[in-house]
């Protein structure tokens, strides 16, 4: 069974998807980490960002492994390295070209094959798993997402204004929404959860409730019906 959770940067998808997966005993896949990993790999090799052919070649050969919440590129655990602002600001070079998305989409489908999984990203319910059993689109206003991000950073001792966060977040939103393929949008059959004013616990509770409903409905639909002769 596949559950997709899509939404913009800073909507809290990863932590919610991880917790939903834990509660249901499903696996969790962070597809943003996959785009981050190939971006990091390109930076290490010094491939030019505008050399699309070489980028596609690299994405083709890259061996991405997602295991126990960690991401490996060609056997190297790079789970921390992929979270730097340098990686974030270059992701579009790997996330925009349709040929690269095709490769990463194929890897996501391969990872999900035969598994019960909660997968989160931008295009999971639209492009990668259009037949997913349950689709959630988790969102919040730009200001709310920026305020939450500021609080998270402050907890780590990093002081940055909401305005600064908002500026880079708006840039990412724009890039995510304008992508020719795999752009950020809710699938027509997704349930949109608008989380402004909700606490993390309230969001988790609401998403879990919706997902449980879907899972039950899906199990009921696939149960063999009584055949009367
Ligand atoms: O979820 P994240 O912030 O770690 O994702 C980083 C970037 O990766 C995001 O800005 C766009 C790209 N991405 C994508 O294009 N498709 C996905 N399914 C997930 C992420």
Automatic annotation (TrEMBL):
Domain Cytidylate kinase: 3-212
Species assigned in the record: Rhodopirellula europaea 6C
Name the record gives this protein: Cytidylate kinase
Lineage of the species this protein comes from: Bacteria, Pseudomonadati, Planctomycetota, Planctomycetia, Pirellulales
Family statement drawn from the similarity comment of this UniProt entry: Belongs to the cytidylate kinase family. Type 1 subfamily.
Binding site for ATP: 7-15
Main subcellular location: cytoplasm
UniProt GO MF annotations: ATP binding; CMP kinase activity; dCMP kinase activity
InterPro entries (alphabetical): Cytidylate_kin, Cytidylate_kinase_dom, P-loop_NTPase
Annotated GO biological process: nucleobase-containing small molecule interconversion; pyrimidine nucleotide metabolic process
Reactions the enzyme catalyzes: CMP + ATP = CDP + ADP; dCMP + ATP = dCDP + ADP
């Amino acid at each position: 069974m596949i559950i997709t959770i899509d939404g913009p940067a800073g909507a809290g998808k990863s932590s919610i998807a991880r917790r939903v997966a834990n509660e249901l005993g499903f696996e969790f896949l962070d597809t943003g980490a996959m785009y981050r990993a190939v971006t990091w790999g390109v930076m290490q090799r010094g491939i030019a960002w505008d050399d699309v052919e070489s980028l596609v070649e690299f994405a083709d050969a890259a061996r991405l492994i997602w295991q126990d919440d960690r991401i490996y590129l060609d056997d190297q655990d790079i789970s921390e390295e992929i979270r730097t602002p340098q990686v974030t600001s270059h992701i579009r070079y790997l996330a925009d070209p349709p040929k690269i998305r095709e490769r990463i989409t194929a890897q996501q489908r391969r990872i999900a094959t035969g598994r019960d999984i909660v997968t989160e990203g931008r295009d999971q319910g639209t492009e990668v798993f259009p037949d997913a059993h349950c689709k959630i689109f988790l969102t919040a206003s730009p200001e709310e997402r920026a305020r939450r991000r500021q609080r998270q950073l402050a907890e780590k001792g990093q002081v940055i204004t909401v305005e600064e966060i908002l500026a880079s977040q708006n840039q990412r939103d724009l890039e995510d929404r304008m992508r020719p393929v795999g752009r950020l949008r809710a699938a027509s059959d997704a349930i949109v959860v608008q989380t402004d004013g909700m606490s993390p616990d309230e969001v988790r509770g609401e998403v879990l409730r919706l997902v449980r409903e879907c899972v039950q409905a899906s199990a009921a639909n696939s149960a063999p019906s009584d055949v009367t002769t």
